[in-house]
Amino acid sequence: MNRNHNLQGRKYYLVHELAMLLEALKSPFVNTTPLNDHSLKYYPLHLRPPELSASGVSIERKKRDNSNVGAEKSSSTITCSVSPDPWSLSNGNKPKPKSKNPKNPLSDDNARRIIKAKARYLSVLRRNQGSRALTPRWIKRSPEQMVQYLEDDRNGHLYGRHVVAAIQRVRSLSGLPDGSYDMRQVMASFVTKLTFREMCTVLKEQKNWRQVRDFLAWMKLQLSYRPSVIVYTLVLRTYGQTGKIKLAEQTFLEMLEAGCEPDEVACGTMLCAYAKWGRHKPMLSFFSAVQERGIVLSVAVYNFMLSSLQKKSFHPSVIEIWRQMVASGIMPNQFTYTVVISSLVKTGLTEEAFKTFKEMKTMRCVPEEVTYSLLITESSKKGVQEEALRLYQDMRQQKIVPSNFTCASLLSLYYKNGNYSKALSLFSEMERYNVVADEVIYGLLIRIYGKLGLYDDAVATFEEIEKLGLLSDDKTYITMTQVHLNARNCEKALDVMEQMRSRKVGFSRFAYIVLLQCYVMKEDVQAAELTLQALSETGFPDCSSCTSMLSLYIKLGLTNKAKDFITQIRKERVKFDKVLLKTVIKVYCKENMTSDVEQMIQELSTNGLCEDDRFIQTVSMVIRGDFTRLEADSDPLDQTGAMAYELLLTLYMATETASKMEETLKLLLKTANGLLVASQLVNNFIKEGLTSAAESLFDLLLKLDCKPEISTCRSMIYLYGKQNQLERAKQVFAAVVDAPAARKHLYNSMIDVFVKFANVDVAYLFYKEENKKGHDIGDVAISMLVNALTSCGKHREAGNVINDCFCKDMELDVVAYNTFIKAMLDAGRLNFAASIYERMLTNDVAPSIQTINTMITVHGRSRDLDKAIEMFNTARVKGVALDEKAYTNLICYYGKAGRSAEATILFNQMQEEGIKPGQVSYNIMMNVYASGGSYKEAAQLFCSMQRDGCSPDSFTYLALVRAYAASHKYMEAEEAISLMEKRGISPSCAHYNLLLSAFAKAGLVGEVERVYKLLIRSGLTPDVGCYQTMLRVYLDYGYVEKGISLFESISVKPDRFIMSAAVHLYRSAGLALEAEGVLSCMNSLGIPFLKNLGIGIGIGLKIKVAD
Fold this sequence. Notes:
- This protein is 67% helix and 0% strand.
- Helix 26 packs antiparallel against helix 27, helix 41 runs antiparallel to helix 42 and helix 42 runs parallel beside helix 44.
- The N terminus and C terminus are likely disordered.
């Protein structure tokens, strides 16, 4: 009875669902057909047999008779009223085999049937929705579960209908003022309807802390409520998310009073609340209490605390919690390591940071880019380049793209270590990986270009920063200004500083220092003094600025201003550095103020106003004549001692106290490195333009039988060469040439001096004299001599020098071989050049890229393209990095051989290798297309060139006009000339002559004359080529009078063709006298006459005389 009663109740709840399904089966998406069995036609849906197939195929039904022991088989074939969609694809699933152990049938088969029928109905409705249709997940439920499911009206919802209604009811209170409602009245309809778990669900789904507070109070009044840590944890979470820390603390205390022992989730929630809102003191206190209770927190809670502490730069606390975490046995994850390593680095615990990093990798946690960046930056600061590069390579192996900060750190490291090539390669790598450079990186790149002397590249980079809108920092302006100053271009440096001022970028103290250097270089005293005054407002000028001003005063002879400025410096008690002290002593020496020097030295020594006390004490002792302590010191001088002696020698040199100078020099030479210090002083005198002081000190060293350093001897040789005192240069050479180590360096200097300041014949004569003596002047000097002889057109003498080297079997480097090959190439001795290359390979000297380029030219000029290609491929096989010139060279010779297809392939290969074609490469490729008449390809390349940011020049347009003219595209050729005029490039006679020749070959005489008039109107004077073309047209088409008129108007020196054409034209016109006159002139000039020229050939006539 009970069971029947339940079944009747369940059927009652399914009536509404059944009606919906019956209505759905009438949908137009379903194709209905009558049943085969008449007895089933009006069979009610809920009473139909459950074995009825939904797939529309006939099946066999088995019935089990419970009253009999045996089984009776019967079957009936039926057709389903629902047919499948003919446009749907099969799902490919095989029919499920019958189970050996079938499940027990449900208590009511109709319940399962209804679920399946609804699934089919929804499937039909979704058919036209496409592949994105959402398919509900069907689960098997018992009939009792199904009744509860329908009663709750969940229908796919996460919670039941009454739970959702409760959630929405409580949430609706968020818009009401606090205290304007009574939660007991609001939730009156839900009393006894919500279980404890459902009340927790309603509490969890609330967002507003007031509703959480009020609903918790209501929960406590319900019979199903029981104090639980889960409830309090949910409340703590909401209070923590909304920043109600006091309420959270009160709730936590209430939880303890209620007898609920807090677990790791509740404690973690409380800690996360403290961490989120920056309550670090109570967080650390609470954390200590949690540790005492032995509660093990999750790694997520630790990460939350560590991250919060690190954001406020509480790095010691981060490290302390990290150590406690490790001690507790909590396994850190990637985020934990990232935060901890950052704090270790920022605290200065570098070794522990690297140790933690290694542990991180051991745990197979992939470090983030920020971790690599921090460690690379730290290694860069300490100058450990190997470690920084190792980290960078490791990062690249992990396929992590470096950030701007990482690249800036590496670029700064390369810059400090002077490894500029790696810095530029890193910048190229940034472009390859699409790492966008910021202003800092561009600023470092400008510095690097400045150090390398790549002035144009630095300027282009600065302009690029400006175009990108990244120019905002004063450091970038100052960097560009310093590059201009290093290039001795003070005007552009001042332009940059003025640009900085106009854009209202604030001037720092350093900016004023650099601006002062600009005015000092410009020798603008008034502007320099104003800048110095502005600098003084930020504090008294530094030593370098004071030195710059004093140098300016000395250079312009403003001694009084210099002395006044020195007085001001001493009054302000500026702490002198060595350079400033040296400059001040120069001023006093120039005015013969020895007593002032001694007084100042004593003042600096007494008051401690010098950066190096030992330095000033050394100077003071020598001035006082206290040589006893110095004589006992024979150890090598450090920079301080060397500078002290340099100042004293400068002082005595200026005051012409020869005895003291010699005495001081002897004392200096007794030290281990005294000769080196004296030699450097000579070099300094030469750099500062004190040539007489340099000569005096150098002569005194030779007098004391001391041979100065090689660099000093070379400097003196160059000094005498500039002064055109070649005999004095030879004397210096003869005095120090005995030293074997110095000989080759001195030969280099002598050859260089003779070439630059005398003439190459003197250098060649010097070589022959030394060669007769059997001296080896070295491969560098030989290269310089051969290069100089070749430049002057003395190819025979250059060949003699090369043969002498080969006869002596001299050991040569790759530079010497390159010079020899280039010399013979310029001389036209191509076979000799090739034999030099073979000798180079025989002697196991590896060719460089310059060698490859030169040899491609050698074989190209020999018209041996196969060998040129072989040379190019050999370089590839040997791993020689081919440059743009090598590719362009071979492309040029492909074009000359008429092999434009191969030239195109090579040009594309060059770009695939990452070599960006320059203007020369584009012009050569354009000429290749022009020679083959490929005007379409030339036009496409012209557009590509402009897209790549390469501006066409006159030669580019010349090639484009040639391509159009060769393809009879006269209009396009003329438009190309007009285009170049619009872009500010003036056409030359060569451009017009191509158009003239094209029209002439086509027999368009009128067009030829029109273009010639355009040439005249453009302001150009026709050259010989234009006159030749015009005369050829008049000859071929019989325009005798026009030809004679043109000849008589020629203003340039005529050549053989023009004069021969004139003779033929005069004879054709019957002007024999004029013809003889031109012929006589040709004979007197030794110009042979062209007899085979004919008139009227272009129109099929032998002679035609114009009317």
